[in-house]
Amino acid sequence: MSHVKKIKNAPEGFNKISPVLFDFEKKLDEVHKEKESRLSAKSQEKLWKIMQIHHERSLYIYKLYYKRKLISRELYQFLIKHKFCDKHLIAKWRKQGYEKLCCLRCIQSDETTHGKTCICRVPRAQLELEAEKKGTEVTFKQCVHCGCRGCASTD
Ligand SMILES: [Zn+2]
Ligand SMILES: [Zn+2]
């Protein structure tokens, strides 16, 4: 049964946003149901899609609370508690330079070639400059962690 529909005793305002939350849930379900593939590229794509939906849902709640001020603090806390959004990611978005951060992994990983942060955090202009110096083109399209196409604040 749907996680959204199971929610009881939600603070006021939940009913207004529950259709949107339900849509996000449906999208996640659809991706989860997609056929598992042995090909790693496929399963990576699936993971990216899931992360993207989680990102969009957190962004939706973040905007409702911090930007549009349409939901109460009580409801916001409730949504965090029920894992409808990622409070750690939202905390980052509130910091300068992290406004467009795609996911937390992209600022934590050290298995990447660009030092501690993921290549998706490097501003496009800087990538282009670096490529130009080497006499090449920017080859970066999507990062390995979440499929981000670039999330520097200046992009
Ligand atoms: Zn990113
Ligand atoms: Zn990344």
Description:
The protein is mostly helical. The protein folds into 2 domains: 3-94, no CATH class; 100-155, no CATH class. It has 7 helices and no strands. The protein has helices spanning 3-6, 14-33, 40-67, 73-81, 87-93, 105-108, 124-134. Helix 2 packs antiparallel against helix 3. The longest helix is centred in the middle third of the chain and has 28 residues, at 40-67. The model has no long low-confidence stretch (mean pLDDT 92). Bound molecules: zinc ion (2 copies). One zinc ion binds next to loops.
The whole-number mean of residue pLDDT values reads 92
Q: Number of helical runs?
A: 7
Main pleated sheet: none
The overall number of domains is 2
Q: Given the C-alpha coordinates, what overall shape results?
A: flat
Report the β-strand fraction as a percent range: under 5%
Keyword list:
single chain, 155 residues, 2 domains, 54% helix, binds zinc ion
Short description:
The chain is an all-alpha fold and 155 residues long.
Summarize the topology.
Blueprint lengths: L2 H4 L7 H20 L6 H28 L5 H9 L5 H7 L11 H4 L15 H11 L21
Helix pairs in contact: 2-3
The structure holds zinc ion (2 copies).
